[in-house]
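We append the chain.
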Amino acid sequence: MDWNKTKTIFIIVFSILNVFLYSFYFNRLMDEQNVQVMGKTSTEDLLKMDNITYSELPPYINDPSYLSAKSKKFTKEQLDALDDQAPILEDGTYLKSILKEPVSVMNEKGDYDFTEFLSKHVLFGSDYVLWDVDEEERQALFFQKVKDNPIYFSRKAMLTVFMNRDGEVTHYEQSMFDEFDSFNRKKDLISPIEAIGNLYSRGYLPQDSSLQQMTLGYSTFVQVTETQVFAPTWHVRVKLKDGKVEDYFINAIEGKMIEFQTESSDEDEDNE
């Protein structure tokens, strides 16, 4: 056996192994340093580096209050006041009403304006805020407000308006809550920038996206018999580089992402 040649091979192999181990150690060290740098970098700076823009953030009022409420039961007297309609009440809480004559919700500029319709033709119409108009389906979706903040996607706190091709309301479906009570939790409400940082860390804010809107509302936290509990919820609307618009919802106390179910179920939404 040529021991000199064998020794040379061992030396070469161990040299390569040392280079590999050093490279591995160096890369691990750099990764740890990068993590430390990222941890020290503010959310604002991280967004700036990825060219993620946003306008003025909403005012931050640290009021970590949960709300509880019960479904409102409409009375016969209230239904009798809808003399221009044919209302049908289901379970005392879900109202379906057909207008005897269609009512236009288009203004002189050709835009939708539901203000007069809500005030004249819908019970407690001022308690709702417009979320979206689906022109293809000819529907408008409203959320009930509490403390001037919307309750997002609760099937028991919605007003759905149906229109004809001329932009006239033909019928609607309505439900709502009342008897609201609030109770606080010990944890603080996360700030708008913290909520944005939450989205960023989860990969929902890609480069060159922009925050179009950010508002505080409520979403169903838990349902107990006839009572539901609502948690403060941040809604963030994001416009991506390709022009697509996404809506995200974050529990403003626990920081969890919220996804809303589109189908009817015992609970209106699930927390991730």
